[in-house]
Amino acid sequence: MPIAGEVGVLINPTAGKGRAARIGDGVLARLAAAGVSARPIIGRDGDHAEHLARQAVRDGAGALIAVGGDGSVHLAAQALAGTDVPLGVVPAGTGNDVARYLALPRTDPLAAVEVILAGRTKRIDLARSGSRYFVTVLAAGFDAVVNERANAMSWPRGQMRYNLATLAELRTFQPLRYTLDLDGERVETEAMLVAVGNGTSFGGGLRITEGARLDDGLLDVVLVKPLSRLGLIRAYPGLFDGSVVEHPQFRRYRVRRATIAAAGIVSYADGERFGPLPLTVEAVPRALKVIA
Q1: Which domains does the chain have, with CATH numbers?
Q2: Which of 117, 153, 224, 238 is deepest in the core (most CB within 10 A)?
């Protein structure tokens, strides 16, 4: 069904080193050519952009289109969760994992706009901690530390940034002591990382929660038990094809609610700083309508 009403176009001017800003003009032009009324939403920073997105939804936007990466989708999800307003995605960021989930064109922004104009929608789950939502994966261990370093790097772009950050952190990282509550089951363990997946991947296609589904009402909580540095390096390629799930040190739990505690870790979700542990995360079934 074609989009009805004015569309808000959330443009992250910094995503993809400015690529999203350049693409945004083309998105607006294509929507206008198709007879769709569109309003650009460009915030001074993330908080301001989220405020403007929420206001657009309150004002009756027919859809919200995120032009950027997973961070832009993350902002849009805060405004759209629990509403009937659909999210469209024009991938223009570094990771673009949500675009992978939705099988959207990731190298041709205008092709992604054509998907949006077709207007086919479905509902997917979200994960929530407190009042904040995420779409992809919550990283809460070695993966979070890598995210912290990667986000501080200005070069290179894309997956290689995460690869270099991984190699840098391998020099000093030690297993962490975790206490988990998984649907009431208490788990105390040492691990290299713990991740909570609503979707299957993060960091530009690292498939840490391979097999997670966006429509099952469950979270995939995975952990990797202690490995040597060499063992971690050998296991790392398995993140690209999902075979990491077959590693003997890999554990998976499918739950509706998880509490994760470990000292000194700041978690990341959708590639964005999310909050220090401990955190409680719960699945929110069918919370987000998406155009796919």
Answers
A1: 7-119 (3.40.50.10330), 137-285 (2.60.200.40)
A2: 224
